[in-house]
Amino acid sequence: MRKPVLTIFYQYNPWNSTIGGIQTLINIFIKYAPNEFELRLVGTADNKDEPLGRWQKREFVGKEINFLPAFVVEDDNFRGLIPTTVKYTAAMMGRCYASDFMHFYRLEPTLTTFKWKGEKTLFIQNDIKKQMTSDKEKNAILWRRFPAAYFALERLLVGQFDHIYSCNSDSMKLYQQRYPDISDRVSLLNNTFDEEVFYPLSSEQRDRQRRELAKKLNKQENTRFVLFAGRLHPQKDPLLLIRSIKALQEPDIHLLIAGEGELAAKVRNEINSLGLVDQVTMLGIVPQKELSELHRACNALVLTSAFEGLPFVVLEALACGTPIVTTQAGETPSLLSSDSGVVCRARSPECIADALRKVVMHPENYPVSSCIKSAAPYAASTVVNQVYSQMWQRWEQRIKQSAVPMALT
């Protein structure tokens, strides 16, 4: 029996560090893919010298994959005048990359896939209703200016999917209610973390890493660190985060920002205007291994998002034993226990500052063991392997069904 082919469609280049939960999920799906599957990825090139529109064998995280760059994106951490999704959709026009299994992470490119044969799965990474209907942060997602048009497009396209996985329970329920004819195809799929990268240390080792980080940044040995990791994008509201550090009024607490994005310049200006240059360090893009070390050295991870699905960075921090401070966005509030993090009642600097003070200054109330317990069900070896196991069962069933007519002739 030949290997079934899984083709992943997303506008990124896995060999070029970009920020985002979708990229993280795809990387994990590649890394933990069983050898029984052949992997293909239709992505992007990061330079003009790379041949476009041609399959090439490459290696990524120890796996051999067939990679096809559809067009060039030199820096995916910043939005251009034409959205990358539009460029990706245009590059797929008139092409056919159908395979046994196809995974999509954006709706728009599937305008081109109606006639493609094979099992199609859509992954949803946000609370779609809040993403599309909120009257704040209209620049966060271009479609938010035209919600009626988005939902019309969605209605046109969703019927072609055999499976729709959402990491957000509200989005799952929304799809089931909006599309009752396909409600049985919609289900919850937890996001995940790579337990080979994100794991805890002893309290002594954590404290040693914290002190080493303080020395590296030329800070006092007793400095406590708070980490933000993600795209500097209106959805994440990093400006609210900076104002929260100002409201905190704790000079021994230092904020680390790991990420880049379109709001980077505004964030730097806010840091300067609020006089926080000595309390905030912008690290830029941080590779995954270094990010895991930061998680283990920090006293808390903070999110000030306007809307979310289930952020990978939350699971990664918890898996390292680091508690969370978050706004009421996405699945994180329901994931946390009272001793693995704090959910802010309001998206205000004062409320977020109070929560940070509670977590960072009283680590004994948020033990490593409680954080690990909250993350444990989301390990990649559990979540991703289950998806592949179900795919393999469906593949075997299709092979048996296709062989029946041949046996009768």
Which descriptors would you attach to this protein?
six-stranded parallel β-sheet; Rossmann fold; globular; eight-stranded mixed β-sheet; alpha/beta
How would you briefly describe this protein structure?
The protein has 14 helices and 14 strands. The protein has 409 residues and is α/β, with parallel strands linked by helices.
Could you explain how this protein is built, in words?
The chain has 409 residues and is α/β, with parallel strands linked by helices. It has 2 domains: 219 residues, 3-Layer(aba) Sandwich (Rossmann fold), CATH 3.40.50.2000; 176 residues, Glycogen Phosphorylase B (Rossmann fold). The chain has 14 helices and 14 strands. An 8-stranded mixed sheet has the order 3-4-2-1-5-6-7-8. Helix 1 links the parallel strand 1 and strand 2. Helix 6 crosses helix 9, helix 7 runs parallel beside helix 8 and helix 7 packs across helix 12. The longest helix has 29 residues. It is globular. The two termini are 20 Å apart. The model has no long low-confidence stretch (mean pLDDT 91).
